[in-house]
Amino acid sequence: MKLHFSAAALGLAVVFLDSQAFAGANDYEFQAVSNDFKAGSGRDVAVRLIHKPTGKPVTGAVLFRSRLDMSPDGMGDMTGKLAADASSEPGLYRFKADLTMAGSWALKLMAKVPGESETVEGTVLIQAKD
């Protein structure tokens, strides 16, 4: 009976550890530094990657996929140019963005965070005005 209990405890531990690894990516959030811009080319857009449980910015993340589109306005095929830019502030990730027309834009990001096995994904909403 003791062996049966140990096997059950081991099974629960595996399930618990697996669910903790899955929840890791959800512990992070991209936040816009500002989400109000004038429509045009080469706009400076900055986002922070925050570890939600601590509220601290995340440094050393590798952003490997980014996309800028107007999906919030139902125009997901309308994309804008987006280029990574240098940042000296920890946890701040900068871009040059072409917000070619007024409306709601979505900055969609994917990152690998040191120590996390899951990919962190997020969307930051940006408002461009004439």
Commentary on this structure:
Keywords: Signal. It comes from Rhodomicrobium vannielii (strain ATCC 17100 / DSM 162 / LMG 4299 / NCIMB 10020 / ATH 3.1.1). The chain is of the alpha+beta class. The chain has a single domain, classed as Immunoglobulins (Immunoglobulin-like), CATH 2.60.40.10. It is 18% helix and 52% strand. The strands form two sheets. Strands 1, 3, 4, 7 and 8 form a five-stranded antiparallel sheet that branches. The longest helix has 23 residues, at 2-24. The N and C termini lie far apart (73 Å).
Q: Roughly how much helix do the residues carry, as a percent range?
A: 10-25%
Query: Which overall shape is indicated by the principal axes computed on the Cα atoms?
Result: globular
- Rounded to an integer, what's the Rg over CA atoms? 19 Å
Largest sheet: 5 strands, antiparallel
Keywords: Signal
InterPro entries: YtkA-like_dom
Signal peptide: 1-23
Organism: Rhodomicrobium vannielii (strain ATCC 17100 / DSM 162 / LMG 4299 / NCIMB 10020 / ATH 3.1.1)
Describe the structure using short key phrases.
Immunoglobulin-like; alpha+beta; 130 residues; 5-stranded antiparallel beta sheet; 5-stranded mixed beta sheet; YtkA-like domain-containing protein
Brief overview, please?
By secondary structure, the chain is of the alpha+beta class. The chain contains one helix and ten strands, in the order αββββββββββ. The chain has a single domain (27-129), classed as Sandwich (Immunoglobulin-like), CATH 2.60.40.10.
Give the topology, please.
Layout (H helix, E strand, L loop, with lengths): L1 H23 L3 E5 L3 E3 L1 E12 L4 E2 L4 E9 L4 E5 L2 E4 L6 E8 L3 E10 L7 E10 L1
Parallel strand pairs: 2-10
Antiparallel strand pairs: 1-3, 3-4, 3-8, 5-6, 5-9, 7-8, 9-10
